């Protein structure tokens, strides 16, 4: 075996074995050349069936460059996802190779890393709503309350069927919301937030339902008006901001100030869009209504022929004739 040279230019190996559920291990090499393979005579031993007994050798060239040599391995190697046919290849700090089903990233001992993130500990409320039984309890409660609200508010021949349909729509929307946030948090930040997202969405639906009843009573007793509309829309905006803020809290470790700013901007834009769409839907699109031909003769008969007095007199005669028929 070649004599090894000890150097201060240490090389750190970050090893991810795919067959080991992506577990990351770190090894340090401070003497070169160093070999990597499955055999016990290597400096770095990997338990990967697709790696040869002596797979590759690494030599130190200078402070920023290393030489990789293929030791006649069966499956070869690739650097930065590019398969290599050459027996030798150079690499630098930050490059990664793949041998077999194992990915190795090389770092110089002085390689710059990201700054440490501030540890954000979840408060008791977040921990409580993130529990599975709390999430499911709120989920079924919202389904029952939604169906009950619909049954009490909407009177129709199919009241029960409509109430069930409304409840199913509400809980399905909550489930979709939770799944989207939960999967995104898992993939992007490796955080579990499904049940927390479900709980927050359920609490928000309950609050919005309560708020709608309060706004109706206020409008009834005050007669409504622009001021009441402003208060109602403001309360809806605050509720939406709190919902987005809570979802972002469970989704990532974003600083609190940035979460509030993002929630306010997103909620304000969404509310403006909803209000604008509502105003457009209420706008009259037909300035001159066209009446059906079936009712046109009746309007023709009651129109005044010469004056308003004659028209009123004709109406009185019509009422008298109706009374006689009775």
Structural category is: alpha+beta
**Helical segment tally?**
8
Helix and strand sequence: EEEEEEEEEEEHHHHHHHH
Strand content: 15-25%
What would you report as the Rg, rounded to the nearest angstrom? 36 Å
Total beta strand runs: 11
Major sheet strand order: 2-1-11-10-7-8
Biggest pleated-sheet summary: 6 strands, antiparallel
Shape: elongated
Q: Tell me the helix content.
A: 40-55%
Q: What distance lies between the first and last C-alpha atoms, to the nearest angstrom? A: 123 Å
Uncertain parts = none
Mean pLDDT across every amino acid position? 81
Q: Give the quaternary arrangement of the chains.
A: single chain
Report on the architecture of this protein.
The protein is an alpha+beta fold and 326 residues long. 51% of the residues lie in helices and 19% in strands. It is built from 8 helices and 11 strands. It has helices at residues 124-129, 132-153, 159-189, 194-222, 226-251, 256-282, 296-302, 308-325, and strands at 5-17, 23-32, 34-37, 44-45, 56-62, 65-70, 77-79, 82-84, 88-91, 96-99, 102-108. α5 crosses α6 (256-282). The longest helix is centred in the middle third of the chain and has 31 residues, at 159-189. The radius of gyration is 36 Å and the shape is elongated. The model has no long low-confidence stretch (mean pLDDT 81).
